[in-house]
Amino acid sequence: MGLFIPLLVISCSLTLANAVFLCLPYTQPKVKRAGIIIELITMILGTSLFIWTGGLGFASGPDWYEVIDTQSTYSPLASWAQPTFWTFIGLAIAAYFPLRFIPVEKLPPLLAALCIAAIYAGAVECVLYIVQVFPWGQEPFSFIGLLPPVNCLLIGAKAIKDITREKCVRLPLWALLALLPFMGVVVGVLFLAGQKPESFVTGFTETAEWNLSTKIPPPRVEYQGHYLCTVAAKGHRRLVRPLRAGRRHGTSIIVNRQLCVANAFEQLMQQRTPRLHKCVRYAYDHTGFHLSRHIHSKAAADTVYLLMKPLEWIFLLVLYLCTAQPETRISRQYR
């Protein structure tokens, strides 16, 4: 929170400056240069803020059909549609530079129209993104995370306004006529690369728990209270290998084999050595929950999973030495 106030002030100031320059009918070269400098600062700082505040977090977020825990968030953009989204955003950013830095008299009209068409397409994606994620919630950084796409719209509008005033007032109309062919070519290339033609829009609708979402996700599961539950829920699936949903104290959790083995061992200990189990349980209750609160990332969950592997093998050895049907005992856990 220490950086929130200055970041908020800087971000809002840059947004306000871009809005003012958009409405300002300036003609002096110095004023125009000042506006371009503000744009470049906004693009550099805005990209950093967008990454830092979680705007790019959906790149690794789960899709709507996956089971997630109560602390996680579904991706606002379907994973299969992300190449389409970033392609159009990247083309819009690339189109900005010819409009801004090639002298008007040297800029071919068709190139200018195609650049404006690319900005139009990127603007549509920005609007869809803003509508999809607004509001993010009560977190203060959520507001800052919305400013980068808003500034993209302002900067694109400024570039189109300036080239229109200096070169040709009909360019935006020509760009509208060129928009469909431009998008058709881009979508066609993306289709050859494996993207769905409709992913420009359905990437936002085929999601869950966002404003444009149309999918109903599976029930969420709880992971707190047992740090191995946290590991099973938050680690990379290929490593921690979640097996199924289970029940713990009346709450759904994600279960993997390591968790089942540990709980089966604890059950055996409770039956054979209740006093020792009571001491171990007391120590675990005072450390495991606090440890689980620090497992915020997939890397942290993976690390705990790997560190627990030697203990898992010991638990498994004891189960095979002391029970007639160890796998049956393991499979019955959290049913």
Note the topology.
Blueprint: H1 4-23, H2 29-52, H3 82-101, H4 109-133, H5 141-166, H6 171-192, H7 199-205, H8 227-234, H9 237-240, E1 242-248, E2 251-256, H10 257-272, H11 274-285, H12 288-292, H13 298-322, H14 326-331
Antiparallel strand pairs: 1-2
Please describe what this structure looks like.
This protein is mainly alpha-helical and 335 residues long. The chain has a two-stranded antiparallel sheet with strand order 1-2. The protein folds into two domains: 4-205, no CATH class; 227-331, no CATH class. Helix content is 66%, strand content 4%. The mean pLDDT is 81. Strand 1 (242-248) and strand 2 (251-256) form a beta hairpin. Helix 10 (257-272) crosses helix 13.
Task: Give a brief rundown of this model.
With 335 residues, this protein is mainly α. The protein has 14 helices and 2 strands.
Helix/strand structural class: mainly alpha
Continuous helix count: 14
Portion in helices: 55-70%
Low-confidence spans: pLDDT under 50, at least 5 residues?
none
Q: How far apart are the first and last residues' alpha carbons, in Å?
A: 42 Å
**What pattern of helices and strands is seen along the backbone?**
HHHHHHHHHEEHHHHH
What is the strand arrangement across the widest sheet?
Answer: 1-2
Main beta-sheet annotation: 2 strands, antiparallel
Query: How many domain regions?
Result: 2
Range of strand content: under 5%
